[in-house]
Amino acid sequence: MLGVRSSNHLCFYDWENLRLIRRIEILGEVADQVKTGLWVGDCFVYTTAHSRLNYYVGGEIVTVAHLDRPMYLLGYIAKDSRLYLSDKDVSVVSYQLQLSVLEYQTAVMRRDFDTADKILPTVPKDQRTRVAHFLEKQGFKKQALAVSQDPEHRFELALALGDLKIAYELALEADSEEKWRQLSHAATMKSDLILAGECLGRAKDYAGLLLLASSAGSLPLMNKLSYESTQNGQNNVAFVSNFLLG
């Protein structure tokens, strides 16, 4: 087999008749020393001199496993979604590598979201948060929010995207003072003072609510603070809020 490389492609030709066997688009280079490798669709799976099992897709290197000894790739069985490797003593081990995940990541790197959306239902749910982190790393936070199954991750993405509605729903589910404070800050940055006040109230941050209500000159927030601080025995804050209300 004859290999010919240009700046954008790597082409393999039959040595005898020069028939093109495969053309590979070059999106980047692997810095580590590759010991053994194989193609799974458009993804290059390989072992390294530092005993790592990685795969490379569209400029992204993902580590599947850290190997405890030198291993050599034998092949990939798509129906089982498993890679098979052997050591020098012919001891065979296998690692799971979902074909649907590889296909989805390939489509994302090609910016082919129509294809990615068609593949997504075949990606197991326990793999989708991993896929969402991949999307986030590529800068596709909106898609990551739609794919992720982890409430913590989804909350962070919702805040980053300024999607206060989804962030509010997730904060309600978690009912965490920390999340309410984070959402309050995000709401304040978007001038949604009513939501910011509600979040501070749910976080029981009455001092913060007093600061927000007084600096914004918001009568509804000050009334809310007066009532809630009185109900919760926050006498100092209740006194100040009632004093400001006159």
From TrEMBL:
Localization per Swiss-Prot or TrEMBL: Cytoplasmic vesicle, COPI-coated vesicle membrane; Golgi apparatus membrane
Chain coiled-coil ranges: none
GO cellular component, one term: membrane coat
Example GO molecular function: structural molecule activity
Family from the record: Belongs to the WD repeat COPB2 family.
Major location category of this protein: membrane
Full protein name: Coatomer WD associated region domain-containing protein
Superkingdom of origin organism: Eukaryota
UniProt keyword list: Cytoplasm, Cytoplasmic vesicle, ER-Golgi transport, Golgi apparatus, Membrane, Protein transport, Repeat, Transport, WD repeat
Membrane topology of the entry: Peripheral membrane protein
Domain COPA/B TPR: 104-246
InterPro entries assigned to the protein according to its UniProt record, in alphabetical order: Beta-prop_COPA/B_2nd, TPR_COPA_B
GO biological process: intracellular protein transport; vesicle-mediated transport
Keyword Repeat: yes
Pfam family, one: TPR_COPA_B
Gene3D superfamilies: 1.25.40.470
Keyword Repeat part of the UniProt annotation: yes
Domain COPA/B second beta-propeller residues, every copy: 24-87
